[in-house]
Amino acid sequence: MARLETTQARITRIFDAAAGGKNHFLADKDTVRQFDQAAPALTTAARAVLEFLSRMIRHLSAGEGVDQFLIVGSGIPTGPAAGHGLHEMARHAGAPDPRVLYVENNPMVVTMAQATIEPFTDLVRVVEGDVREIDEMLRHHVVRTFIDWDRPVAVLLLSSYSLNDDEYAHYVIKRLRHTAAGGSFLGLLHTTFDGIPPELLPAIRDLLAMSLPHLAIRSREEVAALLEGLDLVAPGLVWVPEWRPADDHLACREEPASSGNYGAVARIP
Predict the structure, then answer these.
(1) Under 8 Å CB-to-CB from 57, ≥6 apart: which residues?
(2) What does the alpha-carbon distance between residue 121 and residue 228 come to, in Å, rounded to a whole number?
(3) Using one digit for the tens of pLDDT, what is the confidence trace for 152-168?
(4) What Å distances lie between residue 253 and 51, 219, 243, CA to CA?
(5) pTM of the entire predicted model
(6) CA dist 89 → 18, 45, 69, 129, 181 (Å)
(7) Strand 261-268 vs strand 231-232: parallel, antiparallel, or unpaired?
(8) Exposure class string for 238-260: b at 16+ Cβ within 10 A, else e
């Protein structure tokens, strides 16, 4: 297992810190503070992302009947309240015994989740893997055996921020599409600069260059290209607060672009 890296911020830990969770280090909190000084919206954007993940999982579980989830790169956010893990949302929303497999490339997140989640349930597993090594990830013994790949599964690709090579990003989507059974779903979260005011872009770019130099940023058209050929579940590819909003009190509801992220769910034929 890779050495724990506590001095370099990671995007999933940054979102966890911004949302008031516990899976992060001082470097991540410092990055949140720096972003809020440059453009005071990260905390609200983090909430909007977590709310989107919650609605997506509830829809897939309750609305589509999915009882298997492969969640790649979520950081397993803890959030400010107990009992609101992504696996817990899946259990409460639909099938009583959904199987949830988290794949994370962050050793700290893997170690903590294995110690705090796995001992209490046989229906959740956490393994170390990296979407940037998609073939190796899909060959992992737990990935191959914990999920029944002959039945529909929801694959939630939440670490698209790490796929900064367009050709490889398309390959990842292709591999996931071909691995999952027909009737499966692909959920996608992707960071963008589309909604950032032009006057703030230089400061944001400079900050990212220092804190998250390899973060993949794509326009809506570029994200849509990754999903080409798939049947998007309504409302399609939208700002995360606009994806099946549940109420009027969602983060970034009044200014969806301030969430900084697009979200979509697609059916795999």
Answers:
(1) 69, 86, 89, 90, 93, 154, 156
(2) 37
(3) 999 999 989 899 999 99
(4) 11, 20, 10
(5) 0.86
(6) 20, 20, 11, 23, 23
(7) antiparallel
(8) bbbbbbbbeeeebbbbeebbbbb
Which residue in this structure is represented by tokens 């790949």?
A: 149
pLDDT digits (tens, 9 = 90+) for 57-104: 999 999 999 999 999 988 787 654 444 678 888 887 877 789 999 999
For residue 99, give the DSSP letter.
Answer: E
DSSP designation for 61: I
Tokens 């994370």: give the residue. 104
In whole angstroms, give the CA distance from residue 220 to residue 242: 14
Helix (H, G, I), strand (E, B) or coil at 265: strand
Backbone angles phi, psi at 172, to 5 degrees: -60, -50
The whole-angstrom distance between residue 246's C-alpha and the CA centroid of its chain comes to 19
Read off the amino acid at residue 184. S
